[in-house]
Amino acid sequence: MAYYLYIPKWLFLTGIIAMKYYCCVTAAAVARKGKVPAVIVFGDSSVDAGNNNQILTLLKSNFKPYGRDFSGSRPTGRFCNGRIPPDFISEGFGLKPAVPAYLDPMYDISDFATGVCFASAGTGYDNATSDVLNVIPLWKEVEYYKEYQNKLRAHLGDRKANRILRQALYLVSLGTNDFLENYYIFPRRQSQFTVEEYQDFLVGIARNFFTKLHSLGARKFSLTGVPPMGCLPLERATNIFGHNECEEKYNKVAAQFNAKLKNMVAKLNQELRGLRLVFTDSVYDIFYDMVKKPSSYGFEVVGVACCSTGTFEMSYLCSELNPFTCSDANKYLFWDAFHPTEKTNHIISSHLIPFLKQKFLN
Ligand SMILES: *[C@@H]1O[C@H](CO)[C@@H](O)[C@H](O)[C@H]1NC(C)=O
């Protein structure tokens, strides 16, 4: 008799333990899935928070008037009068209002645990692009990321660090410089590749980049393609025979390149287990819409930039001594000849944040 009594008792206990385990593991898994504990950034000047301040390059922006609308009127090395998209996105996910640059000595690993930027203005997918202005190549951004992983593990322990690295949202934005600073300026790549072949070459590098980061434990990515780069003030300024309208040839190359990136993204999501890589198509479209219908976004000027004459100046040429710089950057789509104003970055981010939340918080 005793024998029969014991069995249900044990089953009951086992059941409780199993149920408890099931309940809490599941609850934890749900909580984990719906969380973005950090924003980690790779790319070029569209997302660089100031890494170029610390390297030997001429491509810098850590002086006024850059940053004049940033918190504390502080030039940080962002190519903007204020904040850039990763800052707004980080804030949108309930994290810091500004993502710090990895090489900035003002910050350390405890700051970087909730967000870090490895981007470098002037870089591209192609090593030859980062060579032009001696900036950080994409492969080196990945090396810094590996170093960051080790520091984070030392700081928080393996378990906690690995969880952050897995659940973080990775923002990736580059490609414009490969075309405008490299392919269309220097003959080397043009003699090797047609522009279609060059696009494929870059997409191959992008593919390897995501595969590498996936193997290092990253999962959630947002990839931004290139903007309608023929509408950047610098390109308009050189479109003399086209009456300084957008250089549609470059816009076409941009759209074509974005389509190829999107295609690669769809394939990679099928191939790599657990990968959640989204391509943000809408950035090109919003950008183009702002250029074509500025007043519906509150802009008054889209053909030239706020800084100096607004046609070719950026970095050191966009200096505080220049008397032509506009007084209200909010009326302008572009801050310097190559980069959007904070207002433009804010509008783009406001479109992106609900999309990214829907993708990564569910
Ligand atoms: C870029 O340079 C790095 C370091 O030299 C190298 O490992 C990598 O293969 C290069 N990438 C391409 C696409 O050539």
Automatic annotation (TrEMBL):
Top-rank lineage group of the source organism: Eukaryota
Single GO MF descriptor: hydrolase activity, acting on ester bonds
Cited Pfam families: Lipase_GDSL
Gene3D superfamilies: SGNH hydrolase (3.40.50.1110)
Family: Belongs to the 'GDSL' lipolytic enzyme family.
Protein name: GDSL esterase/lipase
Organism: Morus notabilis
Taxon lineage: Eukaryota, Viridiplantae, Streptophyta, Embryophyta, Tracheophyta
